[in-house]
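Fold this: Formyl transferase
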Amino acid sequence: MRIALLTLESTASAAAAAHVLRETSQEVVFLGISDPFRGGVARTREIVARCGPRILPWLFVEFAAPRLLRPRGAGPLAAAAAARGLRPVVIHDINGAGQAALEAARPDLIVTCHFDQILSPETIALATRGGVNLHPSLLPLHRGPMPCFWAAVDGDGYFGVTVHRLAPRIDAGAVLAQRAVALPAGATVSGIARALHHAGAEMLLQVIDDIAAGRERGREVAALPYRPFPDRAALKAAAKAGVGLAGFGDYRVARELGGVAA
């Protein structure tokens, strides 16, 4: 089965995406890397306008550090791509120019892992077997771009990871596999996301093989409300409750990752 893997250079998911890329027994024909800064300063300003300055250390650790602290061609994702003989394609618009590049690769299945662009129905339809996504929450809980933050803030201990079908609605496709994950007390949001992506990598590999063998078993779940980036009040309340976004340990991990995109 021919796979197109779409991911993002981030501290949360780079190692997990590299593991999937390295270990899958299927043929990987396309590796697309989203540019988290494709909107330039305007996009960052939009996020900060909503979240306030408390979000800046998390943004740096997750997205800027892997690009700035390692040279191009270094890090686990770059190494896994090289081992596969793949040249990563930087994706600025998956439903625009990226769609044409994806179509040319002729994938049977699209696999997304922390890919921050929403695929249109037409883009998903380019793959004969559709697409699947790894999401670091127990869907339908915590749909959206910062599920680990909301899981930590809710304080109910519902941490886990889900592999689900790609659908036009965000994080709302049929659930293919899911598992709860126990996490140490005091873990940062960045650390939680990293642990959940790591836990989900093997599960994603199994789902890919199941689809290739025609063993897919999905279940539809009723979508719960979408959880967007937290606003200033939510971040302030989280800080008071002892929920940390990122720490020095996360910064150290970020130094070891990245290096794929220009």
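The CA atoms of residues 11 and 206 lie 23 Å apart. The radius of gyration is 17 Å.
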